[in-house]
Sequence to fold (302 residues):
Amino acid sequence: MRSGLDEEAVKKLIQAGRVAKRAVDLAVKLVKHGVSVNYVATSIENYIREQGAEPAFPVNIGVNNVAAHYTPVYNDDSTIPEQGVVKIDIGVHVDGYIADTAVTIALSPVFEGLVEASRRALEKALEIVRPGIRALEIGKVVESTIRSYGFNPIRNLSGHGIERYTIHSGIVIPNYGDILARHRLLEGVYAIEPFATNGSGFVKELDIATIYSLRHAKTTLRGGAMSFYERVYRERLTLPFTLRWYASSVDEYNGLLKIVEELAGRKVLVKYPVLVEKTGGYVSQHEHTVVITERDVIVTTI
Ligand code: MN
Ligand code: MN
Fold:
């Protein structure tokens, strides 16, 4: 098969999806005003490991206008606020087979419409997804659903193809009717993830990154940078990670921050900047992973 989706692969994808779904259920229980974001992320990641799986990336916690790519840092003292929305984006892998799923929690009733917009957009997308569908068709449904609630889809964030040990394969599933997205979704694994906002509908990068990944490279690193690279690569290959997982004291954390800069300078590390809504709009997101086979669609994270 073209995508290499043999029985064993599908089994592991379903297993990852099941763990991810339960992790989302746990997230919904944990997110309450005043709870530390560090506690939320760590509890979910520990849960994933207890289930015999691994995080495919650090748990992303996006509060209000933060759309994506924020994971609590070492000694993060921020807490879930009283008002607004909280997005929890969770990745799980079993032997490199990935499930990617996200949920948004409204902290007050005034944001329930915004949350409903992305939830319903995802539902509608899942209703039409079938082997061979054009990515554009999904984008159209996502956009019209979000607009019917009076919100904007985020146009520069999209769903994506997934491959073994690779979260973003390069295949894009737009969140709007992008006429260029005429490619068909053939056999393979895909994440569909509508984002809705009361802002402009675009995200921008902040100058901070809390999530990184390694590039596969023959390096000429030495000392601490070399041993850190080897340690992370052995555990993660090129999957994203956070320094939270590797530091056990402030001094160690500060040392790792320096090493990260060295690795970035040597082009063997990628930084994922925090993404925020351009005009400060609040953002909601829902995401599921689908496995498309020759004839069927399996939603692994439901
Ligand atoms: Mn995700
Ligand atoms: Mn995703």
Remarks:
- DSSP finds six helices and 14 strands in the chain.
